[in-house]
Amino acid sequence: MNTATPQAKALDLDELLHQHGLRNTPQRQLIYRIVSSSAQHLSAVHVQHQLETLMPGISLPTVYATLELFADLGIVRKMAMIDGVMLYDTGQQRPHAHMVCRNCGRIFDLDIPPVNSDDVTAAMNQGFRVDSGDLVLHGLCSDCRAKANS
After folding, report:
1. Among the three residues 43, 59, 92, which one is the final residue of a domain in this structure?
2. Alphabetically, which GO biological process terms does the record hold (predicted)?
3. Is 45 annotated as ligand-binding?
């Protein structure tokens, strides 16, 4: 379980950006705070909507660029959905798989590794070097199943 305070997380973000020769701008701080404090996986559009009251005028391209930078640095994980939308979360401290309800679209964390060593070995045997991997299971959540059965 991650017990880091928001201040400690902000210091880690500042240090990581500095190590890569990047500044920790107010926009980056707010975007990180929104993604890291959310229990849900967020799209860039959702992040921008939350930013509108805190930082009016921040553009969607700025949000996308910041989230992509964070993904490149390993600060956030990104997950492509079937409809092409990219979602972001900070599940790095606890790698996990995901379950997506095909009816309501909600995403749930599944506390199993997204990739296991057998998967990596199989890929290596094919000459592929694995950098990361995601496991996304699609189906019906318990709420939607209950509604369908009633």
Report:
1. 92
2. negative regulation of DNA-templated transcription; regulation of secondary metabolite biosynthetic process
3. no
